[in-house]
Write a structure and sequence with these properties.
Helix content: 55-70%
Order of helices and strands: HHHEHHEEHHHHHHHHE
Oligomer: single chain
Strand order of the largest sheet: 1-4
Largest sheet: 2 strands, antiparallel
Structural class: mainly alpha
Bound molecules: zinc ion
Number of domains: 1
Shape: globular
Length: 295
């Protein structure tokens, strides 16, 4: 069985599992613990207009990083763009603190390959080839537990292009330093806007809490996005289109069943629920991106 698993890019050795769990644990733990510390101290003191501005701005950066960067560009090559935009997307992607780009891409492509089948890495229905029967465990596995219990994905098989691309390779290699700037940049901007008090508020609100919330947003697509909602004709799995409000908030990523049916498209349908699709179309009209895939 092990040979078969390695042939489809699934790593069962304990070293790979440990390394994966540590990267996931630290990536999740830092913003979570930071949020707790902020709640127990005066870190979340009443936000000023500067704090709200920085929170919304960096949350938008995260949304774009995950939806346009990690998902549509790096995982699915839904469009092409210039070197400087690829750098920008690489940094915004990494700022979401969801693991290095090559790992995210590899896990996501494996998810599509085995969608809701036993080797899917974050299906609500399977865990290490065992069927999940409890409703709560389905949610818990697809939302969070998979990052600690599933066999890791071999990036050499699933993300060859991302590893050989100098920009995403560097962003993956410099993952932790870039993650550090995801906290430091809002704090520095806060300092510039309102001194040390604003820097502390920006660190907790626009740093820790923003990343913590973005984690939940992304994982909701993995969990709820395979459990509740309508299906698009042509999707051959349990992927679902989420509530329109959630879909809009997550820049169109909630149209998950549509995405499973048309994986390479840069614009989900209905387009009116896909702000990321609008952004890509706008960037196309000003020639910042090109070769935009549509179905
Ligand atoms: Zn999915
Ligand atoms: Zn996808």
């Amino acid at each position: 069985m092990r040979v078969e698993l390695s042939e489809v890019g699934i790593m069962t050795d304990s070293k790979a599992m440990r390394r994966n769990a540590i990267v996931n644990g630290v990536s999740i733990g830092i913003p979570f613990i930071g949020t707790l510390i902020g709640l127990l101290s005066s870190g979340f003191s009443a936000p000023t207009s500067s704090t709200v501005f920085l929170f919304l701005l960096f949350f938008l950066f995260n949304l774009i990083g995950v939806s346009v960067g990690l998902h549509r560009y790096f995982s699915h090559h839904a469009f092409e763009t210039s070197t400087w935009v690829r750098w920008l997307l690489g940094i915004l992607s990494t700022w979401a603190m969801q693991g290095p780009i090559d790992r995210w891409v590899a896990d996501h492509r494996r998810h599509h390959r085995f969608s809701d089948q036993p080797l899917d890495i974050h299906s609500p229905y399977w865990s290490r080839q065992n069927k999940i029967t409890s409703g709560f465990m389905r949610f818990a596995h697809a939302h969070l537990l998979w990052m600690f219990v599933e066999w890791p994905t071999d990036t050499r098989l699933y993300a060859k292009d991302t590893i050989s691309d100098p920009i995403s390779r560097r962003c993956s290699r410099w993952y932790w330093p870039i993650c550090a700037t995801s906290f430091l940049v809002p704090a520095m901007l806060g300092y510039a806007m309102g001194g040390s008090d604003e820097a502390v508020r920006a660190f907790f609100w626009a740093g820790c809490l923003r990343i913590f919330l973005m984690h939940q947003f992304t994982w909701m697509v993995n969990s709820f996005g395979h459990m509740f909602g309508g299906k698009t004709e042509g999707s051959r799995d349990e992927s679902r289109n989420m509530h329109w409000g959630v879909t809009l908030l997550f820049l169109g990523e909630g149209l998950h069943s549509y995405h499973h049916a048309h994986q390479r498209t840069a614009v989900n349908q209905p387009a009116s629920l896909d702000p990321a699709g609008y952004l890509i179309t706008f960037l196309e009209t000003i020639h910042v991106v090109w070769k935009v895939q549509r179905f």
